[in-house]
């Protein structure tokens, strides 16, 4: 199951820039190995914003919840992180559906 995850991070008032970057570094140290294993299919930082976009491949909704709750940025910043979750599928599959529905 593929999901598009859009992370929006707000800097807590009690955390300075160095502290925020320290949390973000720990997040990157956890995320980059997941890219190498294939669990994370794509991972991008949105330029000029405190946002990250990821495409993940999980076996179940429960695995997605476990993955999200285990992220350092979610564990450490909690309410300062908003995650938009969108189920996605390959466009080629949609193309096949359009052929079926237009016949």
UniProtKB/TrEMBL annotation:
Classification via Pfam families: MIase
InterPro entries, per database record: Dimeric_a/b-barrel, MLI_dom
Annotated ranges, domain Muconolactone isomerase: 1-91
Protein name per UniProt: MIase like protein
Organism listed in the record: Sulfodiicoccus acidiphilus
């Amino acid at each position: 199951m593929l999901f598009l995850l859009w992370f929006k991070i707000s800097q807590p008032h009690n955390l300075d820039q160095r502290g925020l970057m320290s949390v973000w570094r720990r997040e990157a140290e956890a995320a980059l190995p997941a890219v190498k294993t294939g669990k994370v299919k794509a991972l991008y930082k949105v330029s000029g914003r405190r946002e990250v976009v990821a495409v993940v491949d999980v076996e179940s909704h429960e695995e997605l919840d476990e993955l999200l709750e285990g992220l350092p940025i979610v564990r450490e910043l909690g309410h300062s992180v908003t995650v938009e979750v969108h189920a996605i599928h390959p466009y080629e599959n949609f193309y096949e559906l359009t052929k079926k529905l237009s016949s």
